[in-house]
Amino acid sequence: MNDKITFSDIIQAKAEGKKLPVVSCYDYITAKLLVQTNIPMALVGDSAAQLVLGHDSTLPATMDYMVIITAAVRRGAPNIFLIADMPFLSYQTSISDAVKNAGRFVIESGANMVKIEVNSAHLNVIKAVSDAGMAVMGHIGMRPQHIGKIGKLKAEGTTAEMAAELIDLARQVVDAGAISLLLEGVAAEVAEIISKNTSVPVISCGSGPGCDGQVLVAPDILGLLDGPKPKFAKSFAKISKNTIEAFQNFSDEVTRGTYPDREHSYHMKTGQLEKLQQLLNGKI
Question: How many angstroms separate the CA atoms of 234 and 113, rounded?
Answer without folding.
Answer: 26
